[in-house]
Amino acid sequence: MHAGDELTWVALEFDYKKRSADWYWIAGAGIIAAALLATLTENIMFAIIILVGGFTYLTLASRKPQEVEVHISARGISVGKQLFPYANIAAFALDTEPPRRRIVLVSATGIVRHLYVPLGDESPALIREYLGEYLDEVPYQPSLTDWVTEYL
């Protein structure tokens, strides 16, 4: 929806994948096996990191996405209550290859290099036109990290 000088839409915060109970058992067994291997090599700290990280991943994987409101305005891009000012964004790309539909923001600062904003049912052409006034568009090629997180 285009409201004055602002684009607004509602989308799911991430793509939800329904996973079977077997997936959780296999993932849990893999996490425990990796932690045991780290323990056998006397790397206790790494074993703790594997267990905490694995538990966190399993918890987040079971979470269902919530609807978030996305606003693109002259101030920046906001997703829910989080505002990303244009000063902190180097460029943008549109990733519309199925099954993904998202805006990829290339961060100008911080550790996180790419920020993903769900497109929902909004028109990519309209978003490209609007963001083109504030940011440069760059071609987007999914990285190895993108492929791995999509597979998991």
Q: Would you mind describing this structure in some detail?
A:
By secondary structure, the protein is α+β, with helices and mostly antiparallel strands. The chain has two domains: 2-14 and 66-151, Roll (PH-domain like), CATH 2.30.29; 21-61. Helices cover 36% and strands 28% of the residues. The protein has a five-stranded antiparallel sheet, with helices on one face. Strands 8-7-6-9 form a four-stranded mixed sheet, covered by helices on one side. The mean pLDDT is 85.
CATH topology label of the largest domain:
PH-domain like
Kindly report the average pLDDT value. Answer: 85
Largest sheet: number of strands, sense, barrel closure: 5 strands, antiparallel
CATH class of the largest domain: Mainly Beta
Instruction: Give me the CATH superfamily of the largest domain.
Output: Pleckstrin-homology domain (PH domain)/Phosphotyrosine-binding domain (PTB)
Low-confidence stretches: none
Helix content: 25-40%
Task: State the separation between the terminal residues, measured CA to CA.
Answer: 33 Å
The tally of beta strands, per DSSP, is: 9
Order of helices and strands: EEHHEEEEEEHEH
Shape: elongated
Radius of gyration: 19 Å
User: Which CATH-level-2 architecture of the largest domain?
Assistant: Roll
Strand % is 25-35%
- Secondary structure class reads alpha+beta
Total count of domains: 2
- The largest beta-sheet arranges its strands as 1-2-3-4-5
Figure out the total of helices.
4
